[in-house]
Amino acid sequence: MVQKPNTEFQAKQARLIHSIPKLSFGKRLKKDLKKNWVVYVIFLPVLLYVLLFNYAPLFGLVMAFQDFNVLKGVFGSSFNNFANFKTLFFRDNFGIVLRNTAGMALLNLTVGFIVPVIFALLLSTIRHKRYKRVIQISSYIPYFISTVVVVALWKEFLDEGGVIANFLSWFGFRNQNWLANNKVPVFWLINTAIDIWVGFGYGAIIYCAAIANVNPNLHEAAAIDGAGEWKRMWHVSIPSIIPLVVTMLTLRIGTVFLQGFDKVLLLYSPSIYSTADCLTTYIYRIAFAGSADYGVSTAAGLFQSAIATTLLIISNYLNRKITKSSLF
Amino acid sequence: MHEILVKAREEHYIPPEKRSNKYHGGMVEHKSWLGVLYTVILYAFMAIIILICIVPMWHVLTSSLSDGSILLFKKGIVWWPIQDSGAESMFNWGGYKLLFRNRGIWSGFLNTFIYVAGSTTLGFVLNVIGGYTISRKSMLSRPLALMLVLTLMFHGGLIPTYMVIKALGMVGTRWALIIPGCTSGIFMVIMANAFRNVPESTIEAAEIDGAGHFTIMFQVVLPQSLSIATVIILNTVILHWNSWYPASIYVPTKRNLWPIQLWIKEILAQNQPSSFLQAANPDYNKYLLQYCVILIASLPVLLLFPLFLKYIEKGVIIGGVKE
After folding, report:
1. Residue range B139-156: average pLDDT?
2. Quick check: B211 and B220 in contact, CB under 8 A?
3. Of B25, B28, B42, which has the smallest distance from its Cβ to A224's Cβ?
4. Domain segments of chain B: what residues?
5. Which among A113, A93, A153 has a CA at the least distance from the CA of A278?
6. B307 pLDDT exceeds 60?
């Protein structure tokens, strides 16, 4: 509570403070610079870093509209308007690449998303504390193994006679090298399975924390009313974490077109390009293999970024609508 | 009738001091046989999950200690190092001996150490400076924060970034693997959020005592945000220890600059049985090399992460820091 001025002097002071006219923007800025210039000078390295490695590449996107020549550079190359995009869109395999990217993204968004949630829910019904901790710690292990090693292990297991190929042969599938199979969902499923193996334990942490924060009285009340483990999970745990699940899902929509494709580069081989090739690998190959067409590759990159940014804006909009909170 | 109800209520009444504030399962409910069955199935299922997470690395360990010529024809999981029937020792260290003699792999480890140390140090300094500036109350702090947030939404993509790094003369040098990936906007924003939670009075007290900005940064606000700083450092370290993609773009042909992950990729591609079996007297230990190097490269992170478990879990909860 603000105290009322009780002396003549304080009243005078208060009047003085309130009578100060608001300074113009320029003057305020000048005053601020005078006061905080040291901080801004200290910030310069960060500014330089961000401008060079985050904003300069954005400027470099003009290459997508250029007949880019490495010797002439961005400033010397001539513009060819949308010729790069035309080349890109009318390539034979572009439709396939788009289909593969969308297929893998969709699988990651559905199956890949729900597994950590289910894992966290099942984990919450385990009463033995130490066993629960052991499960949780082991589930983090795959997350800390590097992509190169993860891919090497899966390649060995998916090969003919490998442990996964053997396991699948019990269910009537031919024992084969699954990474050489170019039927439609096979590679997509492998890609999702690896994503799940790597990330399910790590991804479940946030849901475990949310479930642990559910008011224990709710569980107690449900148990007194005769609800067993399953019923309590359905009617107490799940409703309590739904808002978080929705938020995480909308966040995931925003990143699904950008993340996790670098392992495809290690996994695929020319014989399965028809189902494994995705935008990330396509951009990489146009730029660094064979002809090195930087203009078309940048155009493809811009196309991918445009989709990703659109999805991010949509996801943020959905998030704001559903949970009344947003990132930006 | 009323008396019976009162009596029943008294019998079931638990005084507040005897009530447990946290619910422990099984206190009230009577387990039906269905519930018991569910528990048994759940515990068994989780045991399988543990196996699925642990067995691949165990398989690498046992394979690296096996006999190369037998391992070559063995399919499936190696549960225990397999040896020739005449072998006197349970373990075959031949693969590790080859590994120690391989100079490329050791330079790979050295390079990875340089990249991890360099980018973590540089990234840490940038995070603290950036976080400090945008956490302060000044006119430019909000626009600067917005500038950092925008980098999360818009990406230049592979080629434009490559061209910038090339224009800076970094392609083909160690700098390309240390500087561009050392931090990101999200780390600085998280750091700034932590700094904002530091009580204003401590900063003011330091200012009155004549502390400069660097003193306030590293001796006042940072010590009060140590756990989040640790989270960010851990994420940077793990990211760079496991990184292979930037190296394959910026130093594709300079083997003396390769990090260990790129060496693993190379050994896996080159060290196919078909290549060394053509020799008159093939050294089967060469087949073990890939398992040895995978194990040695994964061991530091796998041994360290249980120590930092608290911070790793915290990291997910404060910001979902990944890649």
Report:
1. 86
2. yes
3. B28
4. 33-92, 99-319
5. A93
6. yes
CA–CA distances in Å: residue A305 to residues A26, A278, A310, B155: 37, 14, 8, 7
The pTM (predicted TM-score) of the whole model is 0.83
Structure tokens of B5? 């109800």
Which domains can be identified in chain A, with CATH numbers? 86-323 (1.10.3720.10)
Q: CA A98 to CA A103: how far, in whole Å?
A: 8
Q: Where are the beta strands (DSSP E) in A281-326?
A: none
A225 touches chain B (CB under 8 A): no
Phi, psi of A65 (to 5 degrees): -105, 15
Give the span between the Cα atoms of A84 and A264, in whole angstroms. Answer: 25
Higher-pLDDT residue of A4, A171: A171
Whether B210 contacts chain A with CB within 8 A: no
Identify the pLDDT of residue B321.
37
- Using the Cβ of A101 and the Cβ atoms of chain B, whether some distance falls under 8 Å is answered with no
Of A54, A125, A216, the CB nearest to B23: A216
A152 vs B156: CB contact, 8 Å cut-off? no
**Could you report the per-residue pLDDT of B208-247, keeping only the tens digit for each?**
998 888 889 888 899 988 888 888 898 899 889 999 999 9
Contacts of B72 in chain A (CB under 8 A): none
Query: To which CATH superfamily is domain B99-319 assigned?
Result: MetI-like (1.10.3720.10)
Convert the pLDDT of each residue in B271-281 to its tens digit: 776 666 666 66
pLDDT at A323: 67
A285 shares contact with chain B (CB less than 8 Å): no
Which pLDDT score is estimated for B74? 79
Q: Are A188 and A268 in contact (CB under 8 A)?
A: no
pLDDT at B227: 85
- Who among A39, A46, A139 is closest to B136 (CB)? A39
Q: Tell me the β-bridge partners of A258.
A: none
Closest residue of B to A301, CA-based? B157
**Nearest Cα residue to A261 out of A279, A248, A249:** A279
Helix axes B226-241 and B185-196, enclosed angle (nearest 10): 170
